[in-house]
Amino acid sequence: MWRILLPLTLALACSLALGDDKAREKREEAKLRALEQDIKALRETLDKRGGERRDLAAELKEHELAVSAINQKITALDASIARLNDELVALDDRKAALVEQRRAQEALIAREVEAAFRLGRAEPLKLLLNQEQPDHLTRTLRYYQYFVAARSAKIADFKATLAELAAVENAIATRQDALATDRGQLDIEKAELAARSEERRQVLAALDRELGSEQARLAEMDSQRRELEAILARLQEAIQDLAAPSSDPFPKLRGKLPWPAAGKVVKGYGAMRAQNLPWKGWLIAADEGAAVTAVHNGRVVFSDYLRGHGLVLIVDHGNNYLSLYAHNQVLLKELGEWVRAGEKIAQVGKSGGLEDSALYFEIRHNGQPQDPRNWLTRR
After folding, report:
1. Which of 125, 232, 282, 321 is the most exposed place for a label (fewest CB within 10 A)?
2. pLDDT digits over 244-263, tens only?
3. Are residues 259 and 131 in the same domain?
């Protein structure tokens, strides 16, 4: 009896476990959506407290989001063009091999045709009459059948080569048409990008004139910082209820984390950005479009635009640790997605009003900023 009951028990246990996993995933998804709505409501509240510059800030956001969308299209088109080029190279190589194969087969078929022509239509009869010993008749006929079958196989192979060559040539023509279309679309997107970038520059200039005094600039930066702090505080509350990533605990990787971008630190932790306004992370100068990678395994808990910080992505690493990546050109991950250490999650940009491309990076523990120098590997 136990031999019957044991498999049933195991199957039931697996079914229950699977059901628990699905229920857990649904609860996590619900929590993330609730967090998304909370953040949205918080941002709406913060926006209502803004002053006269909100219209220009909203216009800047519109242009920067448009620039980001265009850059995403350009990135996709670049990838498509690279893939098509690789396929064309492979198809050209295959075509060259097939052409060579066709030539060899043509020569072989020509020899076979010449041999058949010399023997004439009565090929089997001549072979039989040339036999001096009747007991070799059966063997000779069998050899002749093999010979005919081999000749037929060569002809079939030749036809197959011609068919594949035609298919490859059609595939090359198709890829070339697709390549021309993608390149044409790429030119259109780049022209649109140039126009949007110029509009962005004009809005930035208008914002600069609007701010005027140093005191006004300081007040604006302080306002932007407080908005970010409010969102981070809300996220810190929310992650208490979320499942932590199953990986090496963040604290154990102190001094061993990979850098989020290849570049030079131009503003260090604690340096004064303005009067009484220190940097709480690193500003890393990097090429526009360069890869931004996650410093550790985790889950995305924020992926959106923030005034003064541009396109921002925040990852929860468990143990009340968060990492923040700001001023991105493109965000490649959405709320709730899991990421792995070293995985590309964004592209370096200058959204949020930067003049030069850079990544702003923070590490937080229990809501408090940490010096990245203590966490990232030495260079």
Report:
1. 125
2. 666 678 889 999 999 999 99
3. no
